[in-house]
Every structure is written in C-alpha cells, then in structure tokens.
Write a structure and sequence with these properties.
EC 2.7.7.65; diguanylate cyclase; 2 domains; diguanylate cyclase activity; Diguanylate_Cyclase; 492 residues; 9 strands; Arp2/3 complex 21 kDa subunit ARPC3; alpha+beta; two-stranded antiparallel sheet; elongated; transmembrane; 5-stranded mixed sheet; Alpha-Beta Plaits; binds guanosine-5'-triphosphate; single chain
Length: 492
Amino acid sequence: MRNTQPSIDLPQMARAVSIRRLFRHGDRREKLSITALWLASLAASIGLGLASVIYKWSGLPVQLGGAELYITVYPPLVICLLWTLTCGWWWGAIPAYLATLTLSLYGGMPLPWALMFSAANPLGFAVMGLGYRAIAISRNLTSIGAMLFYVQLSFVAAIFSSSGALVWCYTNRIDSTALLPIWQGWWLGAFLQSVFLSAPVMAVLWPRLERWQHARPQLLVDAGADPRGSVLRLLGCVAIGVLVYGFVTLKLADNLLQVQAAGIPAALARSLDVARDTTWAFYWVFALIIVFIAFFGYHMFIHWQTLTNKLLSDLRHANQRLYLLAGTDSLTGLHNRRVADERIASEWQRAQRLGLQAALVMIDIDHFKQINDRHGHPTGDEAIRILASEIRALSREIDSACRYGGEEFLIILPQADAEGAYTFAERLRTSVAAIPVPSEHGPFHFTVSVGIALFDAEESSHDAWIERSDSALYQAKREGRNRVVSPAAVAV
Ligand SMILES: Nc1nc2c(ncn2[C@@H]2O[C@H](COP(=O)(O)OP(=O)(O)OP(=O)(O)O)[C@@H](O)[C@H]2O)c(=O)[nH]1
C-alpha cells in the first residue's frame, strides 16, 4: 500500500518558468498572454533602449546631499529585471541583450564589441538569479528581510551590469577622466532603478505570480539544485563586485586627481601623495578583509549546511520510525486499527476510481475468552501471535494485514475476486487449526471464523464495506464457528 508518512517542508529554492514546459503543459490563455507580454516587453526594451541613446539619458548629473552624482536612466533594465525575477534568467536576459545590441549598433559600435557590450546586463541578472538560488529567501518584497536582501543583491548586480561602461568608453574613445561619471552613472542608475522602480512593481506583482506558479508546478523547473556551488559563486560575485567597485572608483578618481593636480605647489602635491598612498593602502587591506570574510563565510555555510543536513536526516528517520510505531500493533507487529481504517478508505477509493476488484477478510478467534480463562492471558497472547504470523505468511505483498481489535484481524486483499479471497481464507482457517499452541496444560489447538465482503462499486462509503465483512463474520459465528462465510462459498 502507499506510504503516507509525513514529509518535512523545506524552503523552496528559486524556480523558473520553463518555456518548453509552458508550450507543452500550459493552457491556451497562459501561452498566449505570456508570449504576447514577453514580445511586447522585447519591443519596449528595444525602443526605450534606443531612446536612452537618442535622448542621452546616460551620466545625468544629480545633486545629492551637496555631492554631484551621475545617473544613467535605462528603462529596459527595469523591464528585463522583472522578467528575470519572476520567470527566470532567460526571460530577462534575451530582451536585455537584444536591446543593448540594437542601441550599440545604432550608436556605431563595431559588432564584436557590441556583442560583448550587450552581455553586461544579462551578467548583472545572472548575479541576481544566483543570489536567489544560493539563499532560499522569498521574492515577496513586502517583507523587510526580503527587501534588504534584494537591495544588497541589486548593488552587486549593478556593479556587474555596469561593466559595459568600460567597453562603451573604450569604443567611443572617451577619455579615462570622463569614465568616472559614466561608470558611476551606470552602476548607480542600475542600482536605483532596481530598488526604486523594479522593487515596488515586484512587491505588487510577485504575491499574485507566486500563487499562479504554485498552482502550476508543471510549468516550472528548478533554477539550480546545487546550493553549495551557488553560495560559493554568490560569495565570489559579492567579493569581486565590492572589490571591483572599490578599485574602479579609486582608480578613476585617482586619474582625475592626477590630471587636476598638475601644477599645484610641491608641498601640497606631497600631501596629496600621502593621502593617495593611504587610500590605496586602505583599499588593499579592505580587499584582504573582504576575501577573508568570503572565505570564512563559505566555510561557516558549509559547516552549518552539514549540521542542518544531519539534523534533517535524523529528524526524517525519527519521523519515519514514529510514523511506523504509531501505526503498528506491538503484540503482533501488524498494522493497527488506525492504519487499517486509512488503508480500507484508500483501497475503496482506488477500486472505485479504477474499477478494480478487492476483498475485505475479517477474522476472529473462536471462544477466545475460554482460551484466556483456561490457559491464562500470556497463552492467549501467544495464540494471537500465531494467528498473526500465519496471516503474514499466507498473504501477498500487496495485501494489508491489520489487528483490528483484541482477537479480531482484518486483511485487505486488493485485486482479489470472490474465489481468490475464499481460497485465501480457507487456507488460513485450516492452517491455523493445525498449529499447536504450547501451554502449561500441554499443547492445544484453536480455530477461527472468517467473514468476507467483496468491494461493491454501488456502495456510497467504505464503512458499508467493513459492516458487510463484519456481518459475514457474525454469520460464521452464528452458523457454528470454524468456518468461512463468503459470497463465493457456494460457488467453490
Ligand atoms: N490474551 C489476550 N486476550 C485478549 C486481548 N484482547 C482481548 N482479549 C480477550 O478476548 C476475549 C474476547 O472474548 P469475546 O469477545 O467474548 O469472544 P470469544 O470468547 O472469542 O467468543 P466468540 O468470538 O463468540 O467465539 C475477551 O476475554 C478479551 O479480554 C489480548 O490482547 N490478549
């Protein structure tokens, strides 16, 4: 019979909508609406990407707390990031790649550079996806924890997305002193758009989409089932992201400083050199600390994961044992009444659904009270054990043998007809009668009465099935005991 033991719910790792599964298992409405929406997003990304070049939305100066910052507005990022977060990397990476490719070719970038340049946003999305694969955190941004994680991940992803700025400046022969505002504009722009545009939309959209995905598991695939590898890669990305951010910012600022410092008095230039050297020394110490943190973080994660896995596996085993114990009769080792009731109900449903035959066999030891009274309770127990082991020996792998009451047993025979059930019951009755039970007064024999009821598809519940087997047993007792009452008794 089916094992219905309880399972332990683990947090869901990130899952993605599979295009292949959508077209194989999705309904017409789903296929149409998702395809139409995706194509519209692709068109919008390409159009808005071109607009960002034509109307020069790159490196726009903004005053923040007295400091001048540069921000690039790039709407395709918002659209494509939403696809990545909700449906998976490919869904956002393809339109993002094509949008950037179009605008870079439009801007006159040579094709090989354009092909490389266009990978910047998909790279940032890959970091986002990696984060959600590595840490089983909800994408429901209405919770503070989920939002904080999203913001941190967005920062690292934005650094990776902004790698394109270097290609852009190189191919457009932009002076290295002008690279800082452009690069800053790209990462800051990507970060702010992720946090202030994509995140609120995600907070509204995701709970609904999550419900839809929950109801349609056949459309989803695991986005990656290797948490160890994902964590290692995520820590690597975070460390590289932070270090690259620090290095590029310092280097570009340094270049700028050197250009602007030309011709200043020698004493001031020396102070400037000290300040620059100190900053770089700080950067390298900081880089070392980041590498240590990533290294220890990874080892702590592995340690924690090993411990958790062991705990979970112990818990699973303990649960399995408990479940078995809770359903086992201690005297005979057969299933107890609770399991019997569950299994009868499920066999009844299976027979109904599949139009199968099945039989219930109810067995009771004859004059058991006398056995107890004459030979003592322990000998009565021994008789029960003998009957149980005979039931076990004669029943098939697919049968379910249960101790239903004191000296009453019930056996479910799936796919058994009247004749098969009767043959089984008769064999059991005769073999039990032949087994001697040892006692203080010498060995003695006992008999059993058996009632059989076949599955009836016309009946409205499994209770009626049990009642019929009980009535057949009662009839066997009434007719003199040590016999089988079955619908097939006459035929055989
Ligand atoms: N030794 C032992 N006796 C039990 C156990 N559970 C129930 N009994 C006894 O089983 C006896 C059942 O007796 P009855 O229900 O009167 O039936 P019977 O004497 O078998 O008579 P018929 O069923 O009519 O043949 C009672 O005396 C119970 O105390 C058990 O686990 N071990």
